[in-house]
Amino acid sequence: MRSTAIILAAGSGKRFSAKKKKQFVELFDKPLLYYSLKAFSESNTDDIIVVTSKDDIDFVREDIVKKYGFSKVKSIVAGGDERYDSVYNGLKEATGDICLIHDSARAMISVELINRCIEETVKYRAVVPAVTPKDTIRVRDGEFGGETIDRNTLCIIQTPQCFDIALIKSAFERLYKTDYKTLGITDDAMVVEKFTDTKVRLIEGDYKNIKVTTPEDIVIAKAFLDAGNFL
Ligand SMILES: Nc1ccn([C@@H]2O[C@H](COP(=O)(O)OP(=O)(O)OP(=O)(O)O)[C@@H](O)[C@H]2O)c(=O)n1
Ligand SMILES: C[C@](O)(CO)[C@H](O)COP(=O)(O)O
Question: Which residue in 54, 89, 171, 178 is deepest, having the highest Cβ count within 10 Å?
Answer without folding.
Answer: 171
